[in-house]
Predict the structure.
Amino acid sequence: MSGRITRNELLLGLAVVAVLALAPVALNQYWIRVVTKVLLFAVLASAWNLMAGFCGYPSFGQVAFFGLGAYVTAVEMVRFHVPFVLSLVLAIVLSVVFAVLVGLPVLRLRGHYFAVATLGIAEATKQVVANLAIAGGGEGISFPLPPWTPEVTTRVFYYSMGLVLAAMLVTFRLAIRSRPGYAWRGIHANEEAAQVLGINTTFYKVVAWAISAFFTSLVGGIYGYWIGFIEPNSMFSANVTVEMVVVALLGGSGTLLGPLLGSAVFEVLSEVVWAHFLNVHDLVLAVLFGIIILFLPGGLITYVGRGGRQVRRAVS
Amino acid sequence: MLVNGLLLGGLYALVAVGLSLVWGITNIINFAHGGMIMLGAYVTFWLFHLYGVDPFLSLPVSMVMMFFFGLAVHRTLLHSVLKRADFVFSVLLLTFALEMFLSNAAALAWTADFRSVTVSYAGTSVAIGPVFVPVVDLAVLVTAIVLILGLWLYLTGTKTGQAILATGLDAEAAKMMGIEVDRIYAVTFAIGSALAGAAGSLLAILTAVNPYFGGAYTFRAALVGILGGLGSIPGVLLGGIVVGMAETAGSVLIAPAYRLFVSFVLLVVILIVRPTGLLGSAFFGRMESE
């Protein structure tokens, strides 16, 4: 088995990219924004999935990287007048460094201990940011307005999210079929056995954690600039973490495309149905969360796989 | 500062004892612990607000209500996923979903406003040496310690209590001794829930509560539990006091806003240096989650 991307994958990928690239022609502003959100949560859920689904380390603190990405970008742009792209790069560097420093001790923990520690990371980061004057404290901070017309702005953010998702998919696809991917699955299956086989488990866990933080903070920065105003309670909200987890589980964790499917289904459903019931949004989210765990442990992707096999059998 | 830390510590010990017991005995971590604390707090608030019931008298009510709530949660929700190979993960997520459901349902039913219980004797203080301590704080501390000691006596002194400890020690062996392990797990979970309810009632006396206030206590409870050694009752008392002292010191020396941050640093340090907790033994501090 080689890590190379096969011709079928390449064709499928190019077809999807073509559809998404041309989509803004057919969609109005509202739907472009909805699809942007689908792309955003596809990235967030995939990043969570890399840790939970592939390595077996379900993190409850991913939102810390999301919030850091947005906040560091905002502070540089507002306080030091650094251009957006450069701010974003610095924000990612900082988040990855933070991830590695925190990851070294925290990734030694397992199961419950890891979950609790990551929950603590998110809460502690929120408290620190909420009390930093430079970050606007509890009141939040406003990004400068993007220099384009509203129509162009919508498209810029749409294409940026799309590009990030594409880059992330290629990275993950190459990684999971090569050395790191085998190490991650080894860690998931049996960490002691992986160690005995000579795999430097700590190294590969930190690598996964850093990649996860890289993409999470990257879309965090883009998202912050997109919505224009950020405050600690919304950027570091546990609900964002929950949404990542729900999306990943709905689609199917431990698979490459599950989180994408989950994001498309969940975000569109969320827009269409729950736009009418704003105040029970989180309640419905919680109920859905419970239903998925109780009745859909493999996620929707298992049904897609099953359906696909049945179609193929029927054709042949 | 010392007295404040001690008061806070006693309270944290009670906040944590239910979670630690359930975690140590059944290897389930209940992320909805904070939600149960919140429900207990609202029981006390409504009884006080509507009928003028003294918060200390409403404590048994919220404990009984949360006991049966916990029993129902275990029987209906958790029971179905406990047989799965990855039950640790499933239970984590399921209780996380429950936590979300509880806080959002409470916000819908009772609004997200902060509510507080102000008793007539809130202003009175007693002198302990050179410092004046509010009577309410002292009563809360005493109640918390009495409840924790009561649990300790129950676990060591009664048949069901010993069955709970035996199940925590070795579920297979307990089963062979004729203990109905499933029933013990459910009862343990219900006791943990009742203790969360009690902690909620006491918290309602000291601080303003809203539907989301429990979340931060789930993390603190886990921290105190790990510090003390999971399932260890004396450990919870010690862990609570250590966390209470550390947070009080952090508030004074750095800033009150960094309390949770201090706790987090403490957690990381403890997990690296002594993952079985301060009083944890091989039995109580199982590192294996499988």
